[in-house]
Amino acid sequence: MPTTHFSYEGNILCADGVPLTAIAQQYSTPLYVYSRNALTENYLAYADACKKHQHPDAPALICFSVKSNSNLAVLKILGDLGSGFDIVSGGELARVIAAGCDPRKVIFSGVGKTAEEIRFALENDILCFNVESPAELHRINDIAGQMATTARIAFRVNPDVDPKTHPYISTGLKENKFGVAFEEAFDCYKTAAAMPNITITGIDCHIGSQLLDDAPLLEAFDRLATLVDRLEAEGITLQHMDIGGGIGITYHEEQPVAIPDYIARLYARISQWRKDRYNDRPIRLLLEPGRSISGNAGILLTEVQYLKTNAAKNYAVVDAAMNDLMRPALYEAWHTVLPVEKQDSAAATYDIVGPICESGDWLARQRDLAIESGNLLAIMCAGAYSMVMASNYNTRGRAAEVIVDNGQVHLVRRRETPEDLFAFEKVLP
């Protein structure tokens, strides 16, 4: 995934050629900055690779994972490129619609879909529900019946494949809450096939996030293929296979698999399988990438407020905090931190911390930086699972967001004010 969209020109770090110093001066900090060009390139890495290998009668659909970055402008950029969307809530569907994107390209995942969310999705004719339990299947069938319609579904099948990633973002093992067990999936499909308001269209899995190797994904595909064969023998024919997302990005020194290589290997397996068993009858591929499209397309800008030293450490206290970027506190995640302006002074080792009243409020640890109070820092690879996880803890307004588009900077979400935060509250009479 490209990182050159955020690079130094002389001593100044720029976003697609626009100095981040100028962007910070206009929009203040903390501030999320995204590159439209990076989003486009990352999406096309998937779309172009699929076009190279897909069957002409079964074009792939790339469904961007809205939970990774739900800004309306980001969704609109990807929708205009042809993207579908993977959602996990009714609110995310409302965002897709508000962005002017096509709800008929939406797949709805998640273990806790409410009756209201299911109705909303059916009203908007979404592509497919990824069903995660028998109880959910019965609810969808009942609601579709009440609405005198049918619901297109796939089961999210848990293949019990170890993705070898952080346990908090592993989703395909037996002990995870997601999906139906592989051993139970066949009976679930048979039950669904007998329901009057259900149309079975596919099968889905998603084993985890930030995968650097595609071997677990290919293993999961092989397990799904055996289940598809068994269903076919039972007379249940599927139109699509959704292999999920999960390909990682480079936060530090990781070397994730190249998207074109992964897609080529995946389609090679699909082609051989369909040739051997189905006389080349095609099946449509769906993918759910999120981080690998938006992650390296964004950064978080922050300003150093104070430099502080105690007996153990040096601290750089910045105006961003764990409410702006939760990943380090939640996962002990690494984000590279770069000075926006390179300094000639000697570097020291700092923990980058925020102003929130929690010891867990840190953004980076043990980083060698030449900085002074008032300097700007760029926290890299913050385009995924960053702003979407932001909160208002300590009554802090969420940061603004901008997109750089061919030299122009567009404000796509204004900064929240304190008045915004208590606008829905009342004191007792």
Provide tags for this entry.
single chain; 429 residues; alpha/beta; eight-stranded parallel barrel; 12 helices; 21 strands; 30% helix
Structure commentary:
With 429 residues, the chain is of the alpha/beta class. It has helices at residues 20-27, 36-53, 72-80, 90-98, 115-123, 134-146, 182-193, 215-233, 259-278, 291-294, 327-331, 418-421, and strands at 6-9, 12-15, 18-19, 31-35, 61-65, 84-87, 106-108, 128-131, 151-158, 180-181, 198-204, 240-242, 284-287, 298-309, 314-318, 337-339, 348-353, 362-369, 376-379, 400-405, 408-413. The strands form three sheets. Strands 4, 14, 15, 16, 17, 18, 19, 20 and 21 form a nine-stranded mixed β-sheet that branches. Helix 6 (134-146) links the parallel strand 8 (128-131) and strand 9. It starts with 5 loop residues before the first strand and ends in an 8-residue tail after the last helix.
Count every beta strand, where a strand is a DSSP E run of 2 or more residues.
21
Percent of residues in beta strands:
15-25%
How many alpha or pi helices? 12
Structural class assignment: alpha/beta
Low-confidence stretches: 168-173
Share of residues in helices = 25-40%
Radius of gyration: 23 Å
Mean pLDDT value: 94
Oligomeric state:
single chain
Outline type: globular
- Largest sheet features: 9 strands, mixed
N→C terminal distance: 56 Å
